[in-house]
């Protein structure tokens, strides 16, 4: 089975902890009172993380689209249904991350977050009811569920099917 390029693997393994940290951070931020300065400080870091993740995802998508294809799985490696489900899962992961980044940007615009950060103000009390905030929250729940599914599928491929699929997402030396 042909592995992904080392650049795609590197981007994947930078994005994994970055996304997990951003998800946990966002959950923590949501639990804080809007009138705390601490919440605004944490949102600054969360916003920077979101921009970082969005940029890495764009780079990863460009690299993925311009790199050589991984090719279809051999019939004995996977069923057509599993292959289609994997493709759908990966596309949905990309879509959810982009929508989460966009909804975060939308939320920042809606409450004028940059002005709040610049002036050191507190967040509006109606933040949890804002459409962009609700969308952001729902999308992060969907992403969390899909990450769990994706992880379980990778472990299924590795431990049950033993097809070496998981090893594609690790670094390799090029044969010269």
Calculate the terminal CA-CA distance, rounded to whole Å: 18 Å
Number of helices: 5
Largest sheet: none
| Class inferred from helices and paired strands | mainly alpha
Radius of gyration: 19 Å
Give the SSE string: HHHHH
Percent range of helical residues: over 70%
Contiguous low-pLDDT stretches (5 residues minimum) are none
Mean pLDDT: 89
Tell me the overall shape: elongated
Strand content: under 5%
Strand element count = 0
Descriptive labels:
mainly alpha, 72% helix
Describe the structure in your own words:
This protein is mainly α and 176 residues long. The chain contains five helices and no strands.
Outline the fold blueprint.
Elements: H1 6-31, H2 37-66, H3 80-111, H4 113-119, H5 131-161
Helix pairs in contact: 1-2, 2-3, 3-5
Short description:
This protein is mostly helical and 176 residues long.
């Amino acid at each position: 089975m042909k592995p992904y390029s080392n650049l795609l693997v590197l981007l994947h393994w930078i994005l994994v902890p970055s996304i997990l940290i951003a998800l946990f951070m966002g959950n923590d931020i949501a639990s804080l009172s809007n009138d705390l300065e601490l919440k605004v400080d944490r949102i600054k870091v969360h916003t920077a993380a979101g921009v970082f993740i969005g940029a890495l995802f764009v780079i990863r998508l460009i690299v993925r689209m311009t790199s050589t294809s991984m090719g279809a799985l051999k019939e004995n490696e996977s069923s057509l249904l599993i292959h289609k489900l994997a493709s759908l899962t990966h596309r949905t992961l990309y879509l959810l991350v982009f929508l989460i980044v966009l909804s975060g940007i939308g939320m920042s615009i809606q409450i004028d977050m940059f002005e709040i950060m610049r002036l050191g103000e507190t967040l509006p009390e109606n933040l949890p009811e804002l459409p962009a905030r609700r969308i952001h929250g729902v999308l992060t729940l969907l992403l969390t569920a899909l990450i769990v599914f994706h992880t379980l599928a990778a472990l299924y491929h590795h431990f049950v099917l033993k097809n070496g699929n998981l090893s594609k997402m690790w670094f390799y030396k090029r044969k010269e």
